[in-house]
Amino acid sequence: MKKTLLALAAGASLWASHVRATPIPTDGSWHSFTFHGEGEPFAYEPFTFTLDTTALLTVTDLYLSGDRLAIYNNGVLLGLTSMPQGGIDDYVGSYDMALLDPRWSSASWQIGPGSYSITGTAVLSPWGVGAGGIRVITGAVPEADAALAFGLGAGVIGLVLRRWSARAEG
């Protein structure tokens, strides 16, 4: 019985040393992860952070295009990254370039104050392995209603200026 308990304790210790949280700052810097095929969790997870304000959580595929990712917070699905568009044999080594290119999947979520433990899995991985990045940006995250109001206001101003210009010419 003692040997069994000792073996279980040693196994739990070995497992616990393999699973570790990666605290990340919320300053917008990218943090990398890898995965080893469809259905496999990201290595070096979970990514943990605590917020006292709103922030933008962004995840993107990197290197070889074609992967799609499922992102979770505390075990609850936040959502999937976009479906990659175009070829699956393209390469990019910059998180920011991958984020702007539809051949690499990405997604962003506006999140509020609280403690976060972000994990993920690959749901599409044509290469069998892959990598990506995660970042959290705090600060001025525009509210959807504010952005809509700003856009409508700018459109109205543009129409008014166009009419004034047409009246001045005619």
TrEMBL record:
Alphabetical UniProt keywords: Signal
Signal sequence coordinates: 1-21
Keyword Signal carried by entry: yes
Protein name in UniProt: PEP-CTERM sorting domain-containing protein
Upper taxonomic lineage: Bacteria, Pseudomonadati, Pseudomonadota, Betaproteobacteria, Burkholderiales
